Amino acid sequence: MVHVWELGSGTQTQANRRANAAKAPSSDRHYIRSTNISSTSFFTGWKMARSLFVVAAFLLLFVGFSFMRSFADEPVSTVPAANETIVIADAGDTLWSIASDVKRDGMDTRQAVHRIMERNGLSESQIDIGARLIIPAGVGADEGS
What we know:
Distance between the termini: 110 Å
Shape: rod-shaped
Strand order of the largest sheet: 1-2
Largest sheet: 2 strands, antiparallel
Radius of gyration: 42 Å
Low-confidence stretches: 27-35
Number of domains: 2
């Protein structure tokens, strides 16, 4: 069962309604058409906003990673100066044993270990076999300073 409700004074017949609809001013049709266009532009606006958000998020991440890379600690130079020497760690060598072997007479071994770690950018005293350690000037026995 279908119910149809029609509101009105009842004086207008079906034929009169069709005639009035045909005579409707073009501004009404323009209004209807512009409503459809605005709903289309509404969805286009959301697509544009989503696209801009994705691009902005990508740029933000790219800039963030670029700053992380550029402000990271620079590695300590591995090229020794003219008055520095290089020691290659062998099996069983420790930083303490290398420092005690290469330090000058009268120098504390703890101070030699600290300066070697500082020069080579080491955060812990453990070294690997074959590691190249630069002995800074002032630590080695042959510098004398």
